[in-house]
Amino acid sequence: MRDSKQLEAFAVFVVELGLEYVFGITGHPVIELAMEMQTAGLQYLGFRNEQAACYAAQAYGYLTRKPGVVLCVSGPGLLHVVGGMANAQVNCWPVLVIGGSCPQDHEGIGGFQEWPQVESSRPYCKYAARPPSAALIPVHVEKAVRLATYGRPGAAYLDMPATILTQRVAGKKVAKILRCPPPPLIYPQPQLIEQAVNILANAKKPLIIVGKGAAYARAEKGVQDLVYSTNLPFLPTPMGKGVVPDTDEHCVSSARTLALQQSDVVLLLGARLNWMLHFGQPPRYQKNVKVIQVDLCAEEMHNSLQAAVAIQADIGPVVHQMSQAFKNRKFNFSQTSSWWKELRAKAEKNKQAVGAMAQVTSLPLNYYTVFKSIEDLIPNDSIICSEGANTMDIGRTMLFNRLPRHRLDAGTFGTMGVGPGFAIAAALYCKDNYPKKRVICVEGDSAFGFSGMEVETMFRYKLPIIIIIINNNGIYSGLDKETMRQIQDAGEATQVTPTRSLTVETHYEKIMEMFGKKGHFCSTIPELEKAVKSALKETDSPSIINTMIDPLADRKTQSFNWLTESKL
Ligand code: ADP
Ligand code: MG
């Protein structure tokens, strides 16, 4: 028999650290632990694949700054989680994974689901360890939570062999429960603020880039104050959207290429100069662009480009001090400057081009018309989860975020399969804090396939997530019905271009029928509008709106083919 007292202590301990949710799939050897966690007051959510559980846990960590816990079984269970850990680590989001593992006395001789789990997790984690004895579990749990949340957040893994989970320890021998206070706030060096403000005040074409680090930092008030009081243009990264509302007049997303390419000074707030920001290099930036980098991670400084000023600090105090310094100088970047005029002219031109595409209602539909219709119907404060290639990229420009941390997408790692898990975490967060707020999960048809079975999880926990599938029968683009039929009749399906390989007009909405509900299949704008309105009335069940678009629909022409650019 297992010593449930021991497990109970473990579970109570996790609760005392302030963690609330456990996402996972239970099985040997963590069944009792899962039960004890529930008894101790943690809310346990059972998923259909551990990877999606890990996506949910990290999104919960991003939304709340408290790591979600992932509980998984040994071997394959942990290996399914690994993709999730990597995503958390690359996105800098906190998550704590607890994996059961094979009993130590079966190790090396072919134990059930035996696998080197600590070694396997290490490249994907800030901390990966196996507590050497049950008595030391509290020390390691506290350390794992601390490492996941302090400094640059990330993943932590704790390995729990069945032998440790069943070990008996006298109460007095169990290590004392340590508290893990919130991470310390790092203040900037005053002279660096002064330097940064000087450079910005003398810039001809200044630009603020707001990244998801600013969202994680809860720095929205300070960033807004800085933007509004200085009148500087800003550009959000995908998940930096909403820190300052996309609809604000200082937002230059519609002139993104021009803003990046011509700016002479960039204030980088919680964003890395990685592929997403084109490494800060020509041809996407000026050769001599001066970057003022603000990041709490010292190792991130000067990455890809030598920063003019490198401020290692929390964004909140930095933007507060900068705003003060600008106010003292009575600085205000002129509305009538040639920079603002250029940006506004370009933004206006792009808005008109997109607006025209969004008017076209001929069938099959295009992305822009579909997204315009969705944007017009969903509440302004919705949390939007999104993945897919064109679906995510075009959706990002058409679906506005007015609030911080209201967009969750494929992120820095470009991961497909994250949508349903992220949406579940967002829906739990809304249920606990903003019961009327809606979660809209906008998925490409290919992206949806990765974790589609989590609809059952949503249904089980009565989460009213609205899943909108933008269905083009493929990856990037698909085939129409007639062409696909001819190919299949000729027995040549394996010859179809790999990207256009999905079944034509798959009725994903019929998944709802497994739960006695009806999904929505739409090919026209009136059908889509009706479906979205009806889904918004659901309060305790997910909805699926499967929207067919032109299999060859594409993005508007881009000036740069970003992925094929090379630094060499
Ligand atoms: P994006 O995808 O929006 O470009 P990244 O994930 O590349 O953003 O970068 C986010 C950056 O924010 C990371 O380098 C991380 O270290 C940093 N960061 C996270 N929290 C804070 C904070 N509180 N203050 C400053 N920087 C932060
Ligand atoms: Mg597709």
Automatic annotation (TrEMBL):
UniProt key word Transcription: no
Enzyme Commission designation: 4.1.2.63
Catalysed reaction equations from the record: a 2-hydroxy-3-methyl fatty acyl-CoA = a 2-methyl-branched fatty aldehyde + formyl-CoA; an (R)-2-hydroxy-long-chain-fatty acyl-CoA = a long-chain fatty aldehyde + formyl-CoA; 2-hydroxyoctadecanoyl-CoA = heptadecanal + formyl-CoA
Residues in Thiamine pyrophosphate enzyme TPP-binding domain copies: 388-546
Cofactor: thiamine diphosphate
Thiamine pyrophosphate enzyme central domain: residues covered: 193-321
Keyword Membrane listed: no
Molecular function (Gene Ontology), one example: lyase activity
Pfam families: TPP_enzyme_C, TPP_enzyme_M, TPP_enzyme_N
Similarity comment text for this entry: Belongs to the TPP enzyme family.
Protein name: 2-hydroxyacyl-CoA lyase
Lineage of origin: Eukaryota, Metazoa, Ecdysozoa, Arthropoda, Hexapoda
